[in-house]
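In practice, a research group might receive sequence data for several interacting partners and want a quick structural hypothesis before committing to experiments. The following worked case mirrors that situation: the sequences arrive first, and a predicted assembly follows.
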Amino acid sequence: AIQLTQSPSSLSASVGDRVTITCRASQGISSALAWYQQKPGKAPKLLIYDASSLESGVPSRFSGSGSGTDFTLTISSLQPEDFATYYCQQFNSYTLTFGGGTKVEIK
Amino acid sequence: EVQLVQSGAEVKKPGESLKISCKGSGYSFTSYWIGWVRQMPGKGLEWMGIIYPGDSDTRYSPSFQGQVTISADKSISTAYLQWSSLKASDTAMYYCARFRYDYMRAFDIWGQGTMVTVSS
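A structural hypothesis for the assembly, expressed as tokens:
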């Protein structure tokens, strides 16, 4: 099964900072990677699909890049509402995997 | 409005059976896969399996194969997740979500979650 390794597992940042989260797949997955944001007590929310496509309604400060095994989620200017946990997810031959998550906390 | 509405929280004893539900509305329920995701307290997301309500084609994560059963009743636009004998380690929040197999290959609509607590 394909494993996804996210790093870092947590980070502290200030409002206005540029934040980058990485997700590495144990084997190539082309661009079949999505990113989600989850706030405490809430269901996850889709941010990015197909590695770099922004879901409708998601602010443009969120962006995704990468293909094959290495992917990144970037928040260009961190806002107060962005403090949350972020997960990557891959799809390959009807098997899905989530990364372990990255908690973004206030510095 | 496209939405998935899940059944309410459950408190069960070890060894009991349980079936929780996820009702879709606002879209063609038979045309999209529905997935189930577990989140244990304070932990990350784990994919359990997906079902295509149109023909009940079901795929399971190897970690959950044989541990749970996923089903759907397309006549009432509802997917289900069931256990025949619960364990304390099944205590978790369970989410259903619509899976876009087309160009997205991602879960675009999520239910509100069903909390399952298993305790003697």
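Before designing any experiment, note the following. Chain A has a mean pLDDT of 97. The interface with chain B takes residues 1, 32, 34, 36, 38, 43-46, 49-50, 53, 55, 87, 89, 91, 94-101 of chain A (CB under 8 Å).
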